[in-house]
Design a protein that fits this description.
Blueprint: H1 7-22, E1 26-27, H2 28-35, H3 40-49, E2 54-62, E3 68-76
Length: about 80
C-alpha cells in the first residue's frame, strides 16, 4: 500500500527529523503535543523510506495509577546523525 504524502505529512516528517537531530529521541506523546502528529509510527516509516537510519527502543514509563507502560522511543542512529 502506498503512503499518501501531503504537505502536512512532509511538514511533520521535517519537524520530527529536526527534533531527533537537535533534541534527541521522540515518543508518540511528544510528537502529538509538539507537532500535532497523531501517527508517529507512520512518519517514522516515511523517514526510514527516505533513507534515514532510525532506531526504535522500548522504554518503560509510569502511567496513571502507578502502573508501568512500555512505549516506543525513536532516535537517529548515532552513526548516521
Amino acid at each position: 500500500m502506498a503512503t499518501l504524502i501531503n504537505e502536512t505529512t512532509k511538514s511533520q516528517c521535517a519537524a520530527i527529523l529536526a527534533h531527533m537531530k537537535t533534541k534527541g529521541p521522540i515518543t508518540k506523546l511528544e510528537a502529538l503535543k509538539q507537532y500535532d502528529c497523531m501517527h508517529l509510527g507512520g512518519r517514522i516509516c516515511d523517514l526510514r523510506k527516505s533513507g534515514h537510519d532510525i532506531k526504535t527502543v522500548t522504554i518503560a514509563i509510569k502511567a496513571r495509577g502507578g502502573k508501568t507502560k512500555r512505549i516506543a522511543q525513536y532516535h537517529l542512529d548515532k552513526k548516521a546523525a
